[in-house]
What does this fold into?
Amino acid sequence: MVPVSINGDINQNSIPVTDRGFLFGESVYEVMLIHNNKPFHLEAHLARLEKNFYTLCQHRLDIMQIKNWIIAYLQDVQMYNCQTLYIQITSGNMSMRNHLPNLINPTCILHQTYSEPIKFEAYKKGFRAITIPDTRSSLSQLKTNHLALNTNGLRLAAKSGYDDAIFVKHGYLTEAASSNLFIVNKNILITPPTDGIVNGLTRQEIIKLAKKAAIPCQVRPIHSNELQFASEVFLSSSVKLLKPISEIQSLYHNPAPAPIWEKLFNLYIDLIHDYTIDNATTY
It folds into this structure.
């Protein structure tokens, strides 16, 4: 079992069953890439964590305390070669189950999370995805732990021999089960607007990198019919980075090279290296 930190105590590995995150789903999370034992985009992750928790629970977090717990955790688990860190904040424990808490005393849980090895040659071959109806609530724009429909989508994909699942709402592509979505059409990079979906930090960086590399970029709705004209499709997340898709069940099939994905992938890898070097003495 990987080490778990609960409110800074790395020897703790359990929370009470009366924790509101367990009983009511009052919890938000972040998954952070760790490179050279340095957290990538730590401040941006913490800012989003604070914003989402306040939106969900109307309570301000002690972000500096959480940051210190993260740094201490990474120092303690260096021997485990931590590559991705999971951060979950719940609205805390109560003495007895009650819909309205007398006091919110957040619980901060830190631990490593699984991440598939990212090998460039394997990525170049692409992955396969299915589409599933997006029946999630408006809370899907927050990184809350209401993820049963997301994980169910991944189970359905795996059961059918596919690697991922992409949500479709009213005929329009929204996002994948744990990633944002990009397509390339006529050499234009296109990604859906973030109304009702998570505005991923990796997504934001890709848009910035595309502009710097003079790659035309549009943020607009993408109808599923548009996939038949797409030359590239890829997903983005803090863990998967830029994950190319070569097939979307019955809608898209293109195992050909993906030059825009490859350019952005390499630029993003450079960004990670540069960021963690520049911040080497900060954390």
